[in-house]
Amino acid sequence: MKKVLVTGGTVFVSRYIAEYYVAKGYEVYVLNRNTKEQSQGVKLIQADRHEIGEALKELYFDIVVDTAYTAHDVETLLDALGEYEDYILISSSAVYPEYVTPPFREETALAVNKYWGIYGTNKIEAESVLLERNPNAYILRPPYLYGPMNNVYRESFVFDCALADRKFYLPKDGSMKLQFFHIYDLCRFMDVLLEKKPPQHIFNVGNKEAISIREWVKLCYEVAGKNVDFVEVQEEIRQRNYFCFTNYEYYLDVSKQYELMQDVKPLKEGLEEALKWYLDNNDRVYKKPYLEYIEQNLET
Fold it and tell me: What is the extent of the structural domain holding 8?
């Protein structure tokens, strides 16, 4: 039985990963402060990741999956670990600067991105520290992750609009494109890396095809059994006041991922899973006041 350490393990990405490996029959440890409900089947190591002490020193892990945000996060975990085999850092596409013409490739020079700010630069520093100390670690850079357990108000915002039979207020003509990756496919790709151990250690991951926000919203309505009536917002209003994504279009070159894993979950199927989870877990999503803004400023 393989032993896995997942940092966090209570919210979206880390929680899904922990439950994924529990379902595979692995012995799964989660490292968190125990301030949220724990998943069934995990073994809790209760500690602040910056003050772990000796809690990990006597444990061996086949896999460490880290969702670190900063270099300090990585450093304190590496200092606290005993022996382990493989380390995977879930980084972000926010490490690529917005002024580079997409698609971003793994070789694209990293720099501050004005849309992502400190989040992106912190991820750059986390990657750098990890590879200095463990050149064999793997780093994954996803675009927008989605699927069950997503506590970010993205697809769930559109589901709310659809289920309430609301018109949807769309930025401009809705041609801006987004790239997604289902959380299940992220886990599957980690399995592929651990099985094949490719010499490349940094991978962009995501669906090969991007999708316009108009088509994405239509798909969200469709899986909710609804038709969408769009209202195009042409005024120069800050997009994040009423829509769940920033006015920033980019996409990743994921050809290296597809050399190792050719199939991904169809977007419609993934959204169906997301809706099913959301209907039972409405209270787990951190909702933003998009609808309030729409009602007060856009509806006539």
Answer: 3-146+181-204
Query: How far is it, in rounded angstroms, from Cα 135 to Cα 220?
Result: 41
pLDDT per residue, tens digit, the chain (300 aa), is: 999 999 999 999 999 999 999 999 999 999 999 999 999 999 999 999 999 999 999 999 999 999 999 999 999 999 999 999 999 999 999 999 999 999 999 999 999 999 999 999 999 999 999 999 999 999 999 999 999 999 999 999 999 999 999 999 999 999 999 999 999 999 999 999 999 999 999 999 999 999 999 999 999 999 999 999 999 999 889 999 999 999 999 999 999 999 999 999 999 999 999 999 999 999 999 999 999 999 999 997
CATH number for the domain spanning 44: value is 3.40.50.720
Residues 166 and 121 in one domain: no
Cα distance between residue 1 and residue 41, in whole Å: 14
What CATH number is given to the structural domain containing 286?
Answer: 3.90.25.10
DSSP secondary structure code for residue 94 in this structure: G
CA distance 38 to 46: 11
Cβ atoms of 206 and 179 within 8 Å: the answer is yes
Q: How far is the C-alpha of 150 from the C-alpha of 15, rounded, in Å?
A: 10
- The identity of residue 159, as a single letter, is F
Q: How many domains does the chain have?
A: 2
Q: How far apart are CA 193 and CA 87, in angstroms?
A: 11
Are 185 and 99 part of one and the same domain? yes
On whether the pTM is more than 0.85, the answer is yes
Q: Which two tokens stand for residue 67?
A: 């969702």
